[in-house]
Sequence to fold (130 residues):
Amino acid sequence: MTSTRTSYAVWIGSALLAVGALFHLTGYVSIPSAPPVGGLEKFFGAAFRALWLFASLHWLLIATICVIAAKSRARFAQLILLCCAVIILTDAALLFWFLGPFIGAAILVAAGIALLVGFFRLSTETKQAG
Fold:
């Protein structure tokens, strides 16, 4: 079972992801629909709406997976936390690369670091227990 310190790190990272995702999701309704003209403009307008929604759902799913993994006694819980942290930090790096510095990328970096802390604490606890 995970310690309180590990759980706090994972909960903080997951909460940051969830809050960021929910805030991101509120922007979905303000994205204009695709223009009525045919061609690429309509395709990219529809694709942008879908990608906006997918990003929000992706972060909510990862936050949920991390909380479940932190509560799990399974040996692969560490690997799940590490993979989730790497995915979130990769998301942050890509957003920073394409959009530059902004609050969304900073939230993702903070969440990824918190998940990494949870991973390392869980890893240390597993070594001490075994």
Helices lie at 4-26, 40-71, 77-99, 103-129. The mean pLDDT is 86. The longest helix spans residues 40-71.
